[in-house]
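agent: user wants the full assembly modeled, not chains individually. Plan: 1) parse entity lines 2) check alphabet per entity 3) run joint structure prediction 4) return tokens. Steps 1-2 passed, two entities, 893 residues total. Proceeding.
--- entities ---
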Amino acid sequence: MDLTLKVWRQANATAKGKFEQYKVNDISPDTSFLEMMDVMNENLIQQGVEPVAFDHDCREGICGMCSLFVNGRAHGPDDDITTCQLHMRKFKDGETITIEPWRAAAFPVIKDLMVDRAAFDKILQAGGFVSVNTGGVPDANAIPIGKAEADEAMDAATCIGCGACVATCKNSSAMLFVSAKVSQLALLPQGKIEAKRRAKNMLAKMDEMGFGSCSNTGACEVECPKGISLAHIARFNREFIKAKFND
Amino acid sequence: MSKINSKIPEGPVAEKWDNFKAHQNLVNPANKRKLDIIVVGTGLAGASAAASLGELGFNVKNFCYQDSPRRAHSIAAQGGINAAKNYPNDGDSIYRLFYDTVKGGDYRARESNVYRLAQVSNDIIDQCVAQGVPFAREYGGLLDNRSFGGAQVSRTFYARGQTGQQLLLGAYGALNRQIAKGTVKMYPRTEMLDLVVVDGKARGIIVRNLITGEIERHFGHAVVIATGGYGNVFFLSTNAMGSNGSAAWQIYKRGAYFANPCYVQIHPTCIPVHGEFQSKLTLMSESLRNDGRIWVPKKKEDSEKIRAGKLRPEDLKEEDRDYYLERRYPAFGNLVPRDVASRAAKERCDAGFGVGATGLAVYLDFKSAIERLGQNVIEERYGNLFQMYEKIVDENPYKTPMMIYPAIHYTMGGIWVDYELQTSIPGLFAIGEANFSDHGANRLGASALMQGLADGYFVLPYTIQNYLADEIHTPRMSTDAPEFVKTEDEIKARIDTLMAIKGSKSVDSFHKRLGHIMWDYVGMARNKTGLEKAIKEIQIIREEFWKDVRIPGDTKGVNSELEKATRVADFLELGELMARDALNREESCGGHFREEFQTPEGEAMRNDVDFTYAAAWEFKGENTEPELHKEALKYEAIEVKQRNYK
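--- prediction returned ---
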């Protein structure tokens, strides 16, 4: 396959960015999207041009480090995947592909296609955990947990923190991300003890970090590589209201 | 040889850990606040250690090269975590987990460390459940278990095919709690480039801020290395793109011994290589071998037809399939340990029975499991893995058997540590995959997660205090001390040299060449001629690298090529040490298979008389041969036998 790439280039956080066009040729349809980017960068290095910076690490869809808006979609034109799992067979020979970073006020661009997602860490630091120290905890089977609840908690816990939900949301809201953690812990007896303070603190931190509000359009759910359901936002809202009634 | 002191406590193996804890030195709460600990890495070992040390009241500085601690490559572990809970009532015990681990490691692990690992395994499961890790459960609400290779009991706890992710997010939660409290200061996108040693003790590290490009100095009363393994020396592996051996290599060059570098695990079930632009290999969890059956065609002509696309595997009759693991190892069948399964796949492919376009693949087939249990059960157990496979290969594994082939996955070798997880440099500790002690020559499935969390939650927080108790009078040191300045100058000079080469070839091109040499000569099967050739070839590539590498951009700001260059420069030295170690070890054991040392049936042949030792290598200067120290391995609680999975 021969392709034209329209790639966002931005020297640093404060510089003005713009699109540059690069060509890549002879790409096998079985190549992954990021391997195609590797080929592009190898060409740039040979031409003496600085390669395009982009985040990536595990390249198997679990670390959440890769991002990229490809042809207007977070993680590109396929469902339930991250960009590293996207393969070139999803594109046509001769196609022009537009590659952009996540765009959200809370995720400032660092360079080219790399963005800063530290705001996600800060939200979780505000309460996305169970406050237990190492040691001195009960036996793992001391508290039975229904299979349905455990499975649903697991559905929420599969969030990889990539930020596709924020990048896709017209309000740049982080509700799907925040609700996944709140919901996971609200479903488990271990997490219930701190449920109220967790819901309030994490929501307050989300607002503080500059994420927008949720208007329940569901775009986040569509683009989530792990298929995390909007139902977790409903549970988060319920947890939050419950907590407010107790104030 | 007298330089090795493994500090194994006195007493029977089952009492050693309790004896140690009863008599070790501790640091009182008021003094803990005065002590700084640097932890490098935020995987299972690093995050659990940083969080636990923060909870105890130490000042912790935690570093990772990723944008968030949650992205460390432990996140990608799929199948599960072992523990000796014996919840299924199938005969498990601490002794049996210990025994299986030592046997699985082909009698090349340190007995006392493995016993302690088995002892604390149960605490890990309790801890993770308390953190809200959503392990798989039965309808009655209790935890479910599954079986893994090398064991005859079901002792593996799991969270679908994402166990590593869930355990890491649990540890990351504990870490976040400490970050919020201020006991841990987190430095993401920061890479350790060197260790600072003052008066023979580890006192700090030099790092590069990967965003600004600034070189920074950090002081600690102790330094903990939790940076994982060095599998990426092979270029293609199941490791993350950024996983590297540089922290381990830099401390080796500062005096920490590197043990058993040749022990590399080649995982039997990975998606086969598709082409020259391939950047990494994807693992298909070992748990799949619970229900999947491995086979190749019985007749070579059928393999040829399949390779040519003239025959579909699902159309090949049952009687024409060779379930070679079930045939060769009836007692363990498809659940033999990883090294055995990998070699058996290579043997069939080398003999011409392989499938796939390249002939370097075998089948992992779920047909009989789907017939027995129904597709919905298989979907529930492995759905995310099947989806992952389909996205990569573009074939539906519920209908067409998966194609798999062995790939580099884990390194059992690593920094030499004593019983207290302290390296040969006082004040410097190594935990998790970065150290060498628990898995011998081969690691059993679901034991890496166990070891990482054991070290971080339950071992290091005790043992490090035995060292720090003598440091309570050491004031915080200024990072303007001459040792810090000198080490930083050396790092800056190295980076400047790299940038000034302005050669013609990319970093990746050198890395790929190194990877080919490593895979061909230091991979699944090794021999004297090949290893000697590898050492020479690596030296040639290294020399070319330092003359001809091209790194665009400059040292300020983000420069991914510079990051890769410093890592590959280290791999080009580490690879040579691996070959040297493999050459020295004239036996076959676990993941180390020397073609000269095998039984007539092609099984690995150990040499217990001459090689029952851990090989600890000491750096002696650039382009000088390292010195070998031997730590004799004594087995008191276990009778050493030839491994038998038949």
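agent: reporting back. Residues 118-245 of chain A form a domain with the Fumarate Reductase Iron-sulfur Protein; Chain B, domain 2 fold (CATH 1.10.1060.10). The mean pLDDT of chain A is 97.
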